[in-house]
Amino acid sequence: MTNYKKFRNRLGNIKYVHIVKMEKKLGRPMHKWERVHHKNLNKQDNRLSNLKIEDLKTHTRNHYKNGDYHILTKSEMRRGAKTTNKILAKKKKFKKK
Question: How high does pLDDT run on average in the chain?
Answer without folding.
Answer: 76
